[in-house]
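Q: Hi! New to this. If I give you a protein sequence and the SMILES for pyridoxal-5'-phosphate, can you show me the bound structure?
A: Yes, paste them in.
Q: Okay, here:
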Amino acid sequence: MLNDSIAQLPTPCLVVDRKKLGHNIERMSARARSLGVTLRPHMKTTKSVDVARLVFEGGIGPITVSTLKEAEYFSGHGFTDIHYAVGISPDKLERAFALSRAGVNLILTLDDPEVATAVVSAAAIHGAGALRVAIEIDTDGHRAGLVPDDERVVSIARTLTRNNIRFHGLMTHAGESYNVHDRTGLEAHAELERSAMATCASRLRAEGFRDIVVSVGSTPTLTAARHLDGVDEVRAGVYMFQDLFQSNLSVCSLPDLALTVLTTVIGRRPDLGFLIVDAGGLAMSKDRGTASQHTDYGYGLVCDASGAPLPQRLIVGNVMQEHGLISLPAADFGRFPLGTKLRILPNHACMTAAAHDHYHVIDTESGSMAVWPRCNGW
Ligand SMILES: Cc1ncc(COP(=O)(O)O)c(C=O)c1O
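A: Thanks. Here is the predicted structure of the protein with pyridoxal-5'-phosphate bound:
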């Protein structure tokens, strides 16, 4: 019955398994509770208010976002404690202050003294409301941030106490955890993230700063951390859907993956050894993250219409804008007539979801299906 409804959906489209999503959410919420930290879920993956409500069991809570558009979207649905966890550029400050004046408890992120000065100067013009600013710390050489013992951490914190701006605390994202290949390595990486942040916060306390919020986060480090002493909150996002990359990291297993792309067989080329489906690079993304891991899933792992991986372990081996090519032994073509519906598990859920503006959420127990919108763009 549910499979019939799925077969009616226009392809390509996103299909989310509600039960798996709920399970992933509950597991990570329980993990944060057991580690004694607040979970500030990163909504960059799902960009969905319906998913955010699931995380907070129907209520509202502190969230992380990756764009001001998300901040505006979630605040429009009642979420008022929002950390915009991408470095703020001064040209975006007017929008940030508008949110703040509208009553949003917005936390900005920066790692540069010039930007800190721009924020306090802009506050004098726009009025800051409850605007808070976190300093980004680079704990593993992954991307943005100041290294923990950089003296500018203290000087920026001092700058951020003027003109109604509040220095909020320290944040980091241990993104190099995505390149660690075993559980022991992940545990070590989580400890590196925690201890570097705890030490940096102690240094600020010694300089007289009080009430420093220490925020860390990634799905792999939150999954692997043995303890989070000295940390107040964690931000994780991809755990809600999980994906092939996370499963290769042993952060989850294949049956946990909640997001698939539904696709239709639109061509068959036994002479060339592939099926053609209508999920190409736009519908799947061109993320090849699993290429560097122990199991390379090409552009995605092929499942039947019920979401179960096919026994032959088929992958999408190549994509063009609207075409996906699934390599197939000649003997198997008879099983996949034109019009066959398949579901593809993505390498990287955040990137795959980004080209779609809504989810079809299926409940395998009740057989019901719902449409949940996403907030794309900037
Ligand atoms: C700043 C920041 N915090 C938290 C996260 C969450 O990481 P994950 O998606 O691994 O849960 C990300 C992910 O890119 C991030 O950029």
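A: The CA atoms of residues 201 and 212 lie 7 Å apart. Let me know if you'd like me to explain how to read the tokens.
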